[in-house]
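As the next step, I wrote out a protein sequence along with its fold in token form, included below for the reader:
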Amino acid sequence: DGIRPPSFKGALRFWWRALNWGRFYLESGGNETAALRSMHAAEVHLFGGSAEQGGQGIFQLSLGQQNIRVGKISGKCIWQSYLMGQGLWHFRDGCLRPAVLSGEITARLLFRPKSADDDIESVKNALYCLGTLGGLGSRSRKGFGSLSLISSNKLNSVPKNSGEFKTFVANIIGSIPQQNALPTFSAFSSWSRIEISMTGSDAWDLLGAGGKELQMYRSYGRNSGGVHKVNGLPAEQNFSEDHDLIRNAAAGTCPNELPQRAVFGLPHNYFFSSDNAKVDIAPSANKRTRRASPLLMHVHAFPDGTFGLIHTLLPAKFLPEGDPVEFKAKKLTQCRTTNTEVDWEVIHEYLSRYQARSVIY
């Protein structure tokens, strides 16, 4: 039924953290705990917190909405459905929930008198990142709910095409202090990567093209007449070792490492149609049962009528040290591993599949 200010402000906080972690980390001399504490205090100052933390932030946010169109996604979803995942898509019933299909938002940020210029600039940059790399709602890291910046009273012009987009984003990200340590959470660092992977004339088709590349890269395929296929195409089977690892887990052998594809995020749910065996993999620390994908997909609408598929990779510590990951299967009992090292090259190889990609960062 529309987009609410708390959701929008929450997304702003995410991009502010992503942009500013490196600065606080370096100022603390590489002390993560000190960096997190000082960063939290700065975030509360800007965005607000509980009464005990300091109350209101330095600006008020209001949203105006025009032509918001809500409904169920219909039509072809062969590859887009892979990005939706279980919970949003069913092979028989299609899309399970209504969505904001299109519309325009005006976000107005009214700052308190005497707000520091640096504070205002840092919030503005978070706003511009949200409007060029981010989105709102379910599966926003998979391109759904993408927001595209189309105008700003603080800019002479917004990016009108992919070339101007590259310059605009690079100017924001390029000012971030470089630090080589993996961030504690999803944030920009020397490990990050931003690219325009593809361009096209239709946003939905572009999202489907991204879904196709991801599914073909990651999927082992289903056996059909002796040949493993993915949506009718021959499976690439790039991760046959993952298949064997999970097959053994289904048979009762507890793994002591994660599948390679775990770097894309957890949980993972596996199903073997040959014998209906199931294996579920998820973090099992208290109140921490997920690990969001470090790879963000965004579909950007350029004013010239074209669209860009943008990928932003934000490597960070995969899980806190010592946090276990649990494997669940019918023949497994108390199967956990604290060996949660991941190989970031798995995602870099995926991004390199896009032959026409254009590097931003």
Summary: The two ends are 36 Å apart (CA to CA). The mean pLDDT is 93.
